[in-house]
Design a protein that fits this description.
16 strands, single chain, 6-stranded parallel β-sheet, binds zinc ion, Rossmann fold, 357 residues, binds NADP nicotinamide-adenine-dinucleotide phosphate
């Protein structure tokens, strides 16, 4: 089979691979809609270490072409949404009741791009299909469901980590697709004021549609003093969904005592994250610092899909570019890699008739 990926760090290529085989609990799918992600480009450029002959992609909606003998709820022909993280549910880490992204170690539930090929292929493998896949509901489009598998799950995880409560003042640093989902999630959780940090005009416009009340630019002065000037004592919750190593200290500094700093940003492995003790209230200001990875699994997907089904959110606002056909994966990926100013999230509809709305 063919797949689009990387020959080595920094070098993309179409690769020829063996079609994957399903174990008794697993499924093989063919993609009907996929989306490139900034995490794919991080991996291409070496952010995950050395990788060779690897098919990229971890955001997909697909058709089941083969289901293992022990799979009960999915059969060939079913359309399923595939979470970016597909935990091994037999591992204690995914049974802890905490974030299921860490089944056999930190972030180990992220199987695509780490232990196996990704979804930019004619066929791809999903472990433990009954526990990881979710049926695509009739009233949800494939492209809306595609925004659930990573963007919504991660952006909303930022909101969960932050513990947003009614009336809170929330700062969301970064309004790419992940941060935009955090803005929408913060509003759903009852935030009062939502201050966002970002500059791209289309992201700013969509942030306002999702509920941002104020917008500040990191290009126009220190964001900590901007937030302090607007709020007096700082935010109740600060969600980091973009930025660089300095963003961490800024987030801690702009959060008031008893507040929470929640990170879903992918920091560079070569960086040290530092802050002055003063910014952390000399360690005595009861400021919580949390960080987490995209939760996966079937229940997570089904619950997030309900928010679309019942009109609570339209995640398709973050889709800025649409491509049609399998061969267009390369163009969509290159667009993501170049990060052009009008780009938010590209999607590739491989089989347009499946997008039923
Ligand atoms: P993105 O499209 O690159 O957006 C980044 C945002 O950060 C933009 O709004 C950008 O502003 C803003 N920004 C850039 N530099 C900044 C600075 N110095 N200070 C403040 N804001 C700054 O990224 P994305 O696709 O939304 O992803 C966000 C992060 O989440 C990435 O690191 C990604 O790898 C990570 N991620 C994590 C998970 C997880 O499970 N934890 C899952 C998926 C992705 P402009 O408007 O000026 O561009
Ligand atoms: Zn992703």
């Amino acid at each position: 089979m063919r797949g689009f990926g990387m020959k080595e760090v920094g070098k993309t290529a179409w690769l020829e691979k063996e079609k994957p085989v399903a174990g008794p609990l697993d499924a093989i799918l063919r993609p009907i809609a996929v989306a490139p992600c900034s995490s794919d480009t991080h991996i291409l450029h070496g952010g995950g270490g050395r990788r060779e002959n690897l098919i990229l992609g971890h955001e997909a909606v697909g058709e089941i072409v083969e289901a293992g003998d022990l799979v009960k709820d999915f059969k060939p022909g079913d359309i399923a949404i595939v979470p970016a993280t597909t935990p091994n549910w037999l591992a204690p880490g995914s049974q802890s009741g905490k974030c299921n992204a860490h089944d056999e170690g930190a972030r180990k539930s992220f199987k695509f791009l780490s232990v196996k090929d990704g979804v930019f292929a004619e066929y791809f493998h999903v472990n433990q299909a009954d526990a990881n896949l979710a049926h695509l509901p009739d009233d949800v489009s494939a492209e809306a469901a595609l925004m659930v598998v990573d963007m919504m799950s991660t952006g909303f995880h930022g909101v969960e980590l932050a513990g947003v409560e009614f009336g809170d003042t929330v700062v969301v640093i970064g309004i790419g697709p992940v941060g935009l989902m955090s803005v929408a999630g913060a509003r759903l959780k009852g935030a009062g004021r939502i201050i966002v940090v970002g500059t791209r005009p289309n992201c700013v416009r969509i942030a306002r549609e999702y509920g941002a009340t104020d917008v500040i630019s990191y290009k126009e002065g220190d964001i900590v003093s901007q937030v302090m000037k607007m709020t007096g004592r700082g935010s109740d919750r600060t969600i980091i969904a973009g930025g660089n190593k300095d963003t961490f200290a800024q987030a801690v500094a702009m959060t008031r005592e008893t507040g929470v700093i929640a990170n879903v940003n992918f920091f560079d492995a070569r960086d040290n994250l530092t802050m002055s003790s003063l910014e952390w209230g000399l360690g005595m200001a009861n400021k919580d610092i949390r960080g987490g990875f995209c939760p996966g699994g079937r229940l997570r997907m089904e619950k997030l899909l309900k928010l679309i089904q019942y009109g609570r959110i339209d995640p398709t606002l973050i889709i800025s570019h649409r491509f049609n056909g399998f061969d267009k994966i390369e163009d969509a990926f290159n667009l993501m890699d170049r990060k052009e100013p009008d780009l938010i999230k590209p999607v590739v509809l491989i089989d347009p008739p499946y997008d039923r709305r």
